Amino acid sequence: MAASPTDRNIQDSWHDNAGRWTLAVRSGAIASRRAGTDSAIVEAVARLRPAAVLEHVLDLGCGEGWLARRLRDAAGCRVTGADGSAELIRLAREADPDGRYLHADYAAIVADPGCLGGPFDAVAANFSLLDEDLSGLLRALAVCAPAGGLVIQTVHPWTACGGGPYADGWREESFAGFGGSGGPGGEAWSPMPWYFRTLETWIGDLRDGGWRVADLREPADLRTGRPLSLVLTCMAIPAERSGRVTASPREAPASAP
Ligand SMILES: C[S@@+](CC[C@H](N)C(=O)[O-])C[C@H]1O[C@@H](n2cnc3c(N)ncnc32)[C@H](O)[C@@H]1O
Fold it and tell me: What is the CATH number of the domain that holds 59?
């Protein structure tokens, strides 16, 4: 399966931004990460215990690999990182020669979920689900981690909405708040397209992809009192119960009381 055109654009921006991104992450230049989103994803994965045995975790869209390294060190689990950017995977391996980092884009994972070498006890996706159509990927993750949890951290829809409409749609990240417009060599960031989802769409898309939201957290920025992000912990819906819900209460037949 080939990557969709939008997925291609997202990946192109990560190809261009790999060096700048790595510097921003490793130098602590991203304020929201310092304020709590880094610890929020680590704690959410750790909360899967004691119900789950966390031996092998997938860091999906791992970037330069900070979360894989942190989970291995803090939670003591084996971690496989996977990312579509060859340069980010090279940087991850350089920082952690004993770690397991795979260059694989989501289309390749959809085509062959076994390519990651699961099964996994948990999947963590930290700000790495950016495309409009996640259905194939979510179903592939359920194959990779049939009994595991899926922990997604994403921008909080109510704050990321900004002045725009609270409606699904494509937006563009300029990275303006990520350490200035210039990278190490003074080059500007490449803008990244990303798909904005409302909370309703997140939960519906996860359900359609075979996952039920078991826990929802909104880590707060203690300075502003506003949510820093949305953290969703999901469990796979058993195949026999994964039928799509077709009628919402608003669409109930006219004869309903
Ligand atoms: C915002 S970065 C987050 C990186 C990392 N999870 C972190 O917390 O620093 C998004 C990551 O998702 C990866 N990504 C986005 N779309 C992808 C795709 N279709 N296939 C593989 N990786 C993808 C990018 O290469 C990038 O590393």
Answer: 3.40.50.150
